[in-house]
Amino acid sequence: HVLQMLNLSLLNMPEPSDSERPKTYVPRNPYPTPSSFPQTPASVFDAPAVFEKFDVDTLFFIFYYQQGTYQQYLAARELKKQSWRYHKKYLTWFQRHEEPKVTADEYEQGTYVYFDYETGWCQRIKSEFTFEYGFLE
Amino acid sequence: VDGELDAAGLRAREQVLPLWLEWLGIYQQQNQSDKAYAAYLNTLHQNGWMRHNERGEHFLRISCHAALSAATDAATTDAAAKPAIAFAPLDAFSKLILLLIKSVPAETADGARPKVQLQLLTRVLSVTIHHLIRQHQAMQYEQRPHAFNQRAYLRLFGSWLFDLNAPDPALDAIQPQILYAFCSAFNALKPSRLPGFAFAWLELVSHRMFMPKLLLLKGHKGWPLLQQLLVNGLFAFLQPFLAAAELSPPVRVLYRGALRVLLVLLHDFPEFLCDYHFFFCDAIPPSCIQMRNLILSAFPRNMRLPDPFTPNLKVDLLPEIAQPPRILAPFSNALARNGFLHELDAFLTNHSPYSFLRELRGHVQNADGTHKAGVISALVLHVGAHAIASMQSTHAASAGLAHSAHMEIYQQLTADLNAEGRYLFLNAIANQLRYPNNQTHYFSCVLLYLFSEAADERVQEQITRVLVERLIVHRPHPWGLLITFIELIKNPRYSFWSKTFTRCAPEIERLFESVARSCM
Amino acid sequence: LGTDLTTLGLNLNSSDCLYATFASPWADAPAQCDPEFNLPQCYYM
């Protein structure tokens, strides 16, 4: 009897699609683009290796415009690999322009490059800046 | 569900179905919005459908039934074809439940929010389990093969495992209770109870959002739960089928599936297999040699195994060889349950009375002459653990082996048991030949000592068989097994190659030569 | 004589955990899935 049940169970053998996540990529404010345009991100953007090829501007674009996605995660990871550090108060990325003048337990001080995503969408130099480690993500 | 609804339930049904269809519409909109979700959930809360009462129960049962019916009604009528499944209603229902759990108001009375969330999850799981069991019974007893489709429930439970176990601040307060709730659910759905759900069950228990999470819980809190699911749920069910020589197609598929799950555990969580090896070896039939080897090959990740083929490897000088393995199975309980633990310990301590030795066989045999494999395993391990402890306390290392009470028990069993009983006994010893630890070393010496002291060459042949049948199957091979066999064939003390059974047939002779070559 | 366990579709030599891409006990290949990732709250604008 049990074997008969098992045979029936084999008939309804689970399939890979049964446990795939429904692809829930939902554009926040969908713009009516021609259907020939890709409607979901290409799977190539799921590969971490491809992010090493992007220039920093592209990584910032993905970071700020693909919020909450795996791509944002990969962009942040690549930025960190390129010695950028995310500041949790200014919500932007900093990179040492030179060795810091002062290094203490709680902070470091010196000249940094940071990414201005709000006004210029460009990198700017900031001297005499104190980077408090409490704001380091 | 209709058959089980009373008048109030039927009235509720008239109200719930439109609500369910409304939700389905919202869910299937192209650009779903949080606003639409919030408005719908608000409606449910305001109309009392979310309370923990009969009305709330009706809502869950009727919407669960509606989702599952819509998903499987799409099934074909062709009995031979595989019934199709519509995922949308199932994904809609699982999403609704996720939102209901996450939307339990934060200001719920006196911090009871986690409790209310867990209560809701438990109610949903029990409604789904109730539905599953009833449909399974319809398939089982009403000869309606398509009444039950495991894939629909797999989809539901799988979605919840993804959504509820993903890192999410809104759910952190009810972890690991969420995992425990799924453990209870999967225990209730185990294959021995619902064989028609067996494949989905193993997929859920080994799910990447469940099994690893359970094993990664702090303090190994999830280890006993997974051990219970695998041993009582899977291996206890498979045991009678695997003991048969021929595996039926569904059992073969389940067996291969179990091998994959064990390989993931061997690769990612070897310590789990190490600590629970006794439970697994007890549950896996002796005929499943490779599966058992897989479990016995596990070793702690921080350990570097010395190459067993190193010429003149001094096993007894290895630092790890003095370390005791961790064994989480209360293996002596089986002896107490069979009423002779106390006498056994008395004999081990006082080396008397000798009458106890003669009664041993009776303790490990059933009335019909078959043997209590679990009791034999427990006896072997209990005596060995006792021997190691007493050797360590008296610091009499190898001297303690020969004329000890412990060895007399092993030799008595070797002499008294028939071939089947002795095979189980020797297997119980070979099941302790694992990674370098003091039990592997002790039992390796015991096996070799029994071989060298055996008066009857058939015993030596059987000891050899127990080792060789574990070596000729595909890898992996436990480290302790390899070093024991290499010692047996290399050390002139055992004059292995002079034994007639090594040349009893041309293919046997070739087998020994090939195994010897691979070992050299 | 058992099964050649290297043919069950699991990359046993992988230095990464197998469970993260374990598709199912019936699958002959790892799952193609978004690995689990966690975005700190401060990344959200």
From TrEMBL, chain C:
Top-level taxon in the UniProt lineage: Eukaryota
Similarity comment: Belongs to the CNOT2/3/5 family.
Name the record gives this protein: NOT2/NOT3/NOT5 C-terminal domain-containing protein
Organism: Chrysotila carterae
